[in-house]
C-alpha cells in the first residue's frame, strides 16, 4: 500500500506518520477497562486533566501566534497550516522547475516558526521538570520498597513501645519528657531483652526514615517546596532535645543565684566574709546535689546492673558449654547422614552416567556405521557412473571426428564459392571501364556530323 501511494505521488511523510502512530499503539496499548467509545486522545485528556498545569507563557505565545499578526493574506490559518502550505509550495516549485532557485519563506512562516520554537522550548522545559520529578519519585519508591522489606526482616512491633520511644520527632521527645516519671522505661527493660530492644529501636529508625521519605514523596507529587515542608521535618529530627531542655534550666539557675545574691546583699546592707562563706557553702551543696549526687546514683545503679550481668554471664557460659556440646553431637549426626545421602546419590549418578555413555556410544557407533555404508554406496554409484560416462564419451569421439571432417568440407566449399564470386566481381569491374570509353567516342562523332 505504501508503494502504491508513493507511485501515485503521495507525500512520504504521511506514510511515516502513519507508521509512527501504529508503533505508538503497539508500544502503549490502552487498558481493557477503558470505555470503547472513547479514543486515545479523549482517554489521555481525561487521565491527565487532574494533573494539568496552566503555563502563562505558553498561553501568551499561543495567543500571539493565533492573533491578528498571522491573519490577512493567510486568513484564519494556524501556524502548522502556514508552514505546511509553504512546504507544499516549495515542493511544487521544485517539481516544476528543478533548476529554479528555492522559494524564500514568507515572513508569516518565519514568525510562526519562531513562535513554535518558543512553545517547544517551554514544553521541553516542562517535560524535563516532569521527568525529573518522575525519576525522583521512582527512586524514592524503590528505596521505600527496600526499606519496607528490610524492616519486615526484623522481629518486633514498634507500636508496643509507649510514647513512641526511640522516635526522632521533637513532639515525641516532649511527650516523653512531660511524663512525671520514667517508670515505663524500667518496665520495658524488665520485659524485653537487649536484643529485642535493639530490634525495636532499629525498626523504629526505619519507620522514621520511611516517614521522611513519605513526606518528600508528598511534596514531589504536589509540586511543593521541599524547604518549607519535608525539609522542616528533617531538621526537626536533628534537634538535640536534651540540649534544648538543659540550656534554659542552666540559665534559670544562674539567674536565680544572681537574684538570691542581690537580695541577700540588699537585706544585709553589706557583704561580710561569713555571708560569702555561707553562699559558697550553699553553692557547693547545690552543685553536690545537682551534679555529683546524680552521678553517684547512676554509678551505683550501673554497678548493680553490672554485677547482675556478670552473674548472668557466668550462668550463660555454663549453659553455652552444654549447648555447644549438644550442637556438636547434632552436627556430627547431620554430617554423617549428609555424607551417606551424598554417597548414595553419587553412586546412582555414576551408574546412570555410565548407562548414558554406553547408550550414546552405541548410538554413535550405529550412526557412524550407517554413514560409512551410505558413503560406500555413494562411492560405488559414482564409480559406475564414471565408467558409463567414459564408455559414452569414447563412443562420441568417432562421431565428433566425422562431424569435424564434414564441417571442414563445408568450410572449404564456402571458401571456394567465395573465391569464385570475388573473381567474377573483379572481371566485371575490369570490363566496365572499357565499354564506357567506346560509347564516348561514338557520341563525339555524331556531334561533328551535326555541325557540318
From TrEMBL:
Start and end residues of each stretch annotated as Disordered: 432-452
Coiled coil (residue ranges): 369-403
Protein name as annotated: Uncharacterized protein LOC115631014
Comp. bias regions, Basic residues: 434-452
Natural source organism: Drosophila lebanonensis
Origin: domain of life: Eukaryota
Record keywords, A-Z: Coiled coil
Amino acid at each position: 500500500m505504501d508503494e502504491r501511494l508513493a507511485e501515485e505521488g503521495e507525500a512520504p511523510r504521511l506514510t511515516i506518520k502513519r507508521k509512527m502512530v501504529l508503533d505508538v499503539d503497539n508500544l502503549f496499548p490502552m487498558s481493557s477497562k477503558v470505555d470503547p467509545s472513547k479514543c486515545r486522545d479523549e482517554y489521555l485528556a481525561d487521565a491527565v486533566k487532574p494533573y494539568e498545569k496552566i503555563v502563562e507563557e505558553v498561553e501568551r505565545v499561543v495567543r500571539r501566534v493565533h492573533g491578528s499578526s498571522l491573519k490577512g493574506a493567510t486568513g484564519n490559518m494556524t501556524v502548522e497550516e502556514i508552514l505546511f502550505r509553504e512546504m507544499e509550495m516549495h515542493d511544487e516549485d521544485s517539481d516544476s522547475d528543478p533548476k529554479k532557485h528555492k522559494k524564500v519563506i514568507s515572513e508569516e512562516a518565519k514568525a510562526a516558526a519562531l513562535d513554535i520554537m518558543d512553545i517547544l522550548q517551554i514544553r521541553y522545559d516542562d517535560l524535563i521538570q516532569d521527568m525529573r520529578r518522575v525519576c525522583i519519585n521512582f527512586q524514592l519508591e524503590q528505596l521505600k520498597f527496600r526499606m519496607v522489606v528490610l524492616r519486615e526482616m526484623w522481629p518486633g512491633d514498634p507500636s508496643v513501645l509507649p510514647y513512641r520511644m526511640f522516635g526522632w520527632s521533637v513532639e515525641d521527645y516532649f511527650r516523653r519528657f512531660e511524663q512525671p516519671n520514667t517508670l515505663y522505661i524500667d518496665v520495658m527493660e524488665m520485659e524485653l531483652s537487649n536484643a529485642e530492644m535493639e530490634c525495636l529501636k532499629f525498626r523504629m529508625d526505619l519507620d522514621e526514615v520511611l516517614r521522611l521519605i513519605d513526606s518528600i514523596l508528598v511534596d514531589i507529587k504536589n509540586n511543593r517546596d521541599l524547604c518549607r515542608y519535608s525539609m522542616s521535618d528533617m531538621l526537626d529530627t536533628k534537634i538535640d532535645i536534651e540540649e534544648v531542655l538543659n540550656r534554659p534550666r542552666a540559665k534559670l539557675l544562674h539567674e536565680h543565684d544572681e537574684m538570691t545574691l542581690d537580695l541577700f546583699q540588699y537585706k544585709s546592707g553589706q557583704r561580710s566574709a561569713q555571708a560569702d562563706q555561707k553562699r559558697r557553702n550553699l553553692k557547693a551543696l547545690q552543685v553536690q546535689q545537682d551534679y555529683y549526687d546524680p552521678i553517684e546514683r547512676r554509678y551505683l545503679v550501673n554497678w548493680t546492673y553490672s554485677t547482675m550481668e556478670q552473674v548472668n554471664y557466668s550462668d550463660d557460659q555454663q549453659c553455652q558449654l552444654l549447648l555447644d556440646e549438644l550442637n556438636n553431637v547434632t552436627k556430627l549426626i547431620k554430617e554423617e547422614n549428609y555424607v551417606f545421602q551424598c554417597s548414595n546419590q553419587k553412586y546412582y549418578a555414576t551408574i546412570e552416567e555410565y548407562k548414558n555413555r554406553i547408550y550414546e556410544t552405541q548410538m554413535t557407533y550405529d550412526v557412524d556405521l550407517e554413514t560409512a555404508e551410505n558413503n560406500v554406496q555413494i562411492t560405488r554409484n559414482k564409480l559406475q557412473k564414471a565408467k558409463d560416462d567414459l564408455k559414452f564419451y569414447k563412443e562420441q569421439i568417432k562421431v565428433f571426428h566425422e562431424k569435424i571432417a564434414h564441417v571442414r568440407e563445408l568450410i572449404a566449399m564456402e571458401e571456394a564459392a567465395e573465391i569464385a564470386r570475388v573473381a567474377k566481381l573483379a572481371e566485371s569491374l575490369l570490363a566496365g571501364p572499357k565499354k564506357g570509353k567506346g560509347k564516348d567516342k561514338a557520341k563525339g562523332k555524331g556531334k561533328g556530323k551535326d555541325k557540318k
